[in-house]
UniProtKB/TrEMBL annotation, chain A:
GO terms for molecular function: 4 iron, 4 sulfur cluster binding; carbon monoxide binding; iron ion binding. Keywords: Iron, Metal-binding. It holds the Pfam family HypD. This is Hydrogenase expression/formation protein HypD. It comes from the Bacteria. InterPro entries: Hyd_form_HypD (IPR002780), HypD_1 (IPR042243), HypD_2_sf (IPR042244).
Automatic annotation (TrEMBL), chain B:
InterPro entries: Hydrogenase_HupF/HypC. GO terms for molecular function: carbon dioxide binding; iron ion binding. PANTHER family: HYDROGENASE MATURATION FACTOR HYBG. The lineage of its organism: Bacteria, Pseudomonadati, Thermodesulfobacteriota, Desulfovibrionia, Desulfovibrionales. This is Hydrogenase assembly chaperone HypC/HupF. NCBIfam families: hypC_hupF (TIGR00074). One of its GO terms (biological process) is protein maturation. It comes from the Bacteria. It holds the Pfam family HupF_HypC. Belongs to the HupF/HypC family.
Length: 363, 75
């Protein structure tokens, strides 16, 4: 077994789970704030095996889901323009906007939309479409923003004049700060996103323990990672000594990845940003810096953030805050299914509603 | 969306590396990685970029700690 495969080892997982069942004698609710954790908690079967005392609450960890209604309306307006080619990660294609439109329906209406695997691929789209501006939809957390920043630097190196980024990136710590400041949020501990933390490190989450007395563990995505994080949280709750612990040391350095952060900081600067369900959060987004203004899609004539109403009946906002479980939404599995999604939390494979739908036998 | 997978580096050409996992091969860019990786290293790949090198010794150490904590002998 290679040293990384061992984190899936069933015998070791069973032993760790048995220990968790034994130790977790007082109830707590933990929130995961990363869509990949959401999926892996369900997919591994862990969710149905957790001791009765431990309740899993899914949080705002799906970048597609937290993209605000106005931001969706903004990129759909761009898609409708004849002078624009959109390049996007596939996850955004079916995110519903005003009047039931999404990028797929826009494509059917003649919009030029290219799905790319990497933002760098969008540079080739721009090169292949002279005479039009290619706009890459910059959606994602700190994991993704450095890749988009590096792409903007490449565009400048290549002297590409028709490539721009619509930067709707979001930052995780300000969202966590907003969540824990909400008196109605009933969360006792966090498991923190492994790959966001690979970039920012563990230090920016310190306030969770210091200011709010909440244990929080940075961890990876294998069953063993999640179980060990829960054991760690259980132990911290018992000892009454909450801390922010990095349990993903094979990938995450406590200081994160300074090279990636430098690239991100060279190109982007923090700004207030809109989150679905959470509203405007100070310093929680990234705007393209003045020095790279030629690559900022918000600088194109006619681009703005239109007012857009919340999706009728959709409770994604509450789901993202952990205030409502997806299956408590009146539309869940009725009007809203992955085939007929009403909100983004059912569209994205990392969305809480999609996970509940796919693994509903385990609820 | 922050899905990022560990892949093994099979070749390095300046700022681009060939990576492989389970027969899938790709090219990834190295501008964001904070320590120069070598062929045979595993890196976490996200959106076409290698973002961190996986630390093999650390992984072995972590597993050992689990086993000791549980009094297990598995590897
Ligand atoms: S089930 Fe559908 S309508 Fe309800 S919150 Fe989830 S995405 Fe929105």
């Amino acid at each position: 077994m290679n040293s990384f495969e061992a984190f899936k080892d069933p015998a070791l997982c069973r032993a760790l789970l048995a220990k968790l069942v034994q130790e977790a004698d007082t109830p707590y609710r933990f929130m995961e704030v990363c869509g990949t954790h959401t999926v892996s908690i369900f997919q591994s079967g862990l969710r149905s095996l957790l001791p009765q005392t431990i309740t899993h609450v899914t949080g705002p960890g799906c970048p597609v889901c937290v993209t605000h209604e106005s931001e969706v309306a903004c990129f759909l307006e761009l898609a409708a323009r004849d002078d624009i080619v959109l390049a996007t990660f596939g996850d955004l294609m079916r995110v519903p906007g005003p009047k039931g439109k999404n990028l797929k329906t826009a494509q059917a209406d003649g919009a030029r939309v290219e799905v790319v695997y990497s933002p760098v691929d969008a540079l080739a789209v721009a090169a292949a479409n002279p005479g039009r501006d290619t706009v890459f939809l910059g959606v994602g957390f700190e994991t993704t923003a450095p890749a988009v920043a590096a792409t903007i630097r490449l565009a400048r190196e290549q002297n590409l004049k028709n490539f721009r980024v619509l930067s709707f990136h979001k930052l995780v710590p300000p969202a966590l700060a907003a969540l824990v400041a909400d008196p109605d949020i009933n969360i006792d501990a966090f498991i923190l996103p492994g790959h966001v933390s690979a970039i920012i490190g563990a230090t920016p989450y310190g306030f969770l323990a210091e200011k709010h007395g909440l244990p929080a563990v940075v961890t990876g995505f294998e069953p063993l990672d999640i179980l060990s994080a829960l054991l760690e949280i259980t132990a911290m709750r018992k000892s009454g000594q909450p801390a922010v612990v990095n349990a993903y040391t094979r990938v995450v350095a406590n200081e994160g990845n300074p090279v990636a952060r430098a690239v991100m900081d060279e190109v982007f600067t923090p700004v207030d940003a809109l989150w679905r369900g959470l509203g405007v959060l100070p310093g929680s987004g990234l705007a393209v810096r003045e020095e790279f203004a030629d690559f900022d899609a918000l600088g194109l004539p006619g681009v703005s953030l239109p007012d857009a109403p919340p999706l009728a009946g959709c409770r994604c906002g509450e789901v993202l805050k952990g205030k409502m479980a997806p299956n408590e939404c009146p539309l869940f599995d009725k009007a809203c299914t992955p085939a007929t999604p009403v909100g983004p939390c059912m569209v994205s494979t990392e969305g809480g509603c999609a996970a509940y739908h796919k693994y509903r036998l385990e609820l | 969306m922050c899905l990022a997978v560990p892949m093994e580096i099979t070749a390095i050409h300046d700022k681009i590396a060939d990576v492989e996992i389970a027969g899938v091969t790709r090219q990834v860019r190295l501008e964001l990685i904070d320590a120069a990786p070598a062929v045979g290293d595993y890196v976490i790949v996200h959106a076409g970029f290698a973002i961190r090198r996986l630390d093999r010794e650390d992984a072995i150490e972590t597993i050992k700690l689990f086993q000791e904590g549980l009094n297990l002998e598995l590897l």
